[in-house]
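Form P-L/3: holo structure prediction, ligand MRU.
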Amino acid sequence: MLEPIVWNRNTLLMIDQRKLPHKREYYACKTLEDVCYAIKNMVVRGAPAIGVAAAFGFVLGIRENLEVDHISGKLISTRPTAVNLSWAVCRMKEFYRLGLDVEQKALEIYNNDIAINKKIGENGSEVILDNFNILTHCNAGALATAGYGTAVGVIRAAFERGKNIHVYVDETRPFLQGARLTAFELNELGIKNTLICDNMAGYLMKSKKIDLIVVGADRIARNGDVANKIGTYSLAVLAKYHKVPFYVAAPFSTFDPDTECGNDIAIEERSDTEIKEIGGVKIACENQKCYNPAFDVTPSELVTGIITEKGIFKASKLYKFYNKLGGKDGC
Ligand code: MRU
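OUTPUT (holo model):
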C-alpha cells in the first residue's frame, strides 16, 4: 500500500512525485517554507493531497511561532485552482482559534481523507460493470490524496469487488501525471492498463474501445461546472459525441458553493519549461513562446454524474444535495 504522505511528529514526509516511477524517495519538510516549496513545485500534487499537506504545513508554521494569517496566506498562494487547499487551511485556522490541538486536527483531516476516498470508491464501483474498459486522465489516485484515491479509487474498488476491468491511461501532457503516476499505481495494484497519448482518446472512443470515463476534480462550482487537469474538457466533449458516460469522482471538500460557475474559477498557469522540456530534455526552440494553463473547466451538462462519499449526483443538482446533506465539515 502506497503511503504518499507520512507525518513523523515534527517532519512531513511525502513521496517525491517528480521522481516517480523510477525512484521512490521521500521528501522531508521541516518548516512551513519546505511545505510551500513542495506544493508549488509538484513534489506533492492532486487536490486532496495538497489540502492534507497544507494542514501539516500549518502545524509546522505554528511551531515556528509564525503569525497565523502569514501561515495561511503563504499556503493558500502556492496553487490557486484546487479548493481543497484553502478549505484545509481555513479549517486549521479555525481549530487554532478555538484552541484545539492542531497536530491532532491535521491527522484527522489526513485519516478522514482516506476514509472518504474508500466511500467514494464504494459508491462509484456500481457504475463500473464487468469487462469494462475505462479511461482516466491525470492522476486521481492514492498519490493525489492521503491514500486510496478518488477516480482511481473508484477503479480500484471495482477491481477489489472482483470485476474484470482494463484501464486506458492518458499520459497527460505536459506534466505526465498519467504516464508517470497513474500507470505506476495501477501496475502496483495489479490492475490491467494501457498507456495512450492524450490525442488518441477520440480515436479509441470512435472505435468503441471505451465504456466509461472517470476523472478527479480540483474545484466544482455551485452550478456543477468542474475544474480538473487540462485536457479533461476535451475528453468530456468527445464523450458526449460518442455517448460514453463521463463521471467525476471527488469528495465534498472539492465542492465550492462560493464559486458560482466555472468561469469564476482561477486557472493556474505554469512555467513554459513544462512544455518545452520532457524529463529535462529540451524539445522546442530555446525562446519558444508557450501557454501552459494547468486546468480547464468542464460544463456541468457534459458530466454524467459526480461520485462523492455521500452518493452519486447529477452535477447541476449537487448544490441542492450538498445543503440537504449538511455540506462539508469546515469553517
Ligand atoms: O496539477 P495536479 O497534478 O495537481 O492536478 C491534479 C488533478 O487535476 C487531479 O485530477 C485532481 O486534483 C483530483 S486528485 C484526486
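COMMENT: The first helix runs from residue 32 to 40.
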